[in-house]
Model the fold of this input.
Amino acid sequence: MRVAQPIELTESEIKTLSSWSRGRRTPTRSMKRAKIVLMAAQGEPNKTIAELLGIDPRQVSRWRRRFVHKRLAGIEKDLPRGGRKATKREQMAPMIIERTTQAKPSHATHWSVRTLADTLGIDKSMVQRVWHASGLKPHLAKTFKVSRDKKFVEKVIDVVGLYLNPPEHALVLCADEKTSVQALDRTQPGLPLVKGRLGTMTHDYKRNGTTTLFAALEMTEGSIIGTCMDRHRHQEWIKFLKLIDHQTPPELDLHLIVDNYSTHKHPKVKAWLKRHPRFHLHFVPTSSSWLNMVERWFRDLTDKQIRRGVFKSIADLIAAIQAYIHRHNQNPKPLVWTAKAEDIIAKYRRAKAVLDKVQTA
Done:
């Protein structure tokens, strides 16, 4: 009877294999191989390892042998594959990539595997393999907008500086309005979530009005100051500033990060700020709402409370929002900003250069 070779690991190998086995930044195949070797080093037979990992015992034996002979290098890379070299695919790959990236079909906005294969007179599997190897996904698109703010660099340095190095004896708050939050009531009750079936909700709904949520995220603790109002004019913004003034320690300066909405710059708002010198407004660049951290909290509110909610009135919607804020403030967690201003500015300049080139082409 064959006996598998025992495996003894060095401290360095244990550290590397343990990292691979967790799979956070490791391909699935490398994670599985690392687990095989770690179990083998603990004295587990191949059959037991195969049962625990749900794989063929021959696969366990193969990677165990490769580790014995080549150590980490033996399991880090795939075994060489046999078969004929894909010469035709190599010849067609540049044409497939060029057509995918430089042209569009006459009858659509983007290529599919089948339409490009038909146009080039090749098999769709060849297009699929070239796209996969090149990371091309014509069926997907991301939204973006490059800011045209002339003071982009100046504002980014200001806002990111507040995040990474907040001033002493002051609070940094990210404030904004979430406008036109709809109270939607479904026309029929949804079916419950059960094993083997998703929960459901009707595609149609009844509108029961809207509200505007004013919210400020305090960066140190992650708590929220929030209230709902019918409209979002400068009058409502001043009311919200008064609420912030009332709910924060009076001896601290307040640095508010806001967007460029005209309400925030209204003459009456400026006059109110002059009478309350502890308030300091910092504006993010235009088309850069992602710099305002309260937008992240708005997203969580939408995902967890609003999108699937059923609200028969504005009062129901406001009660749900207030309940969410209350629960959040019972155990607040700060959102930590990590991106450096110089990295954001460098990325912005690259994107702007590409956009300018496309526009002038």
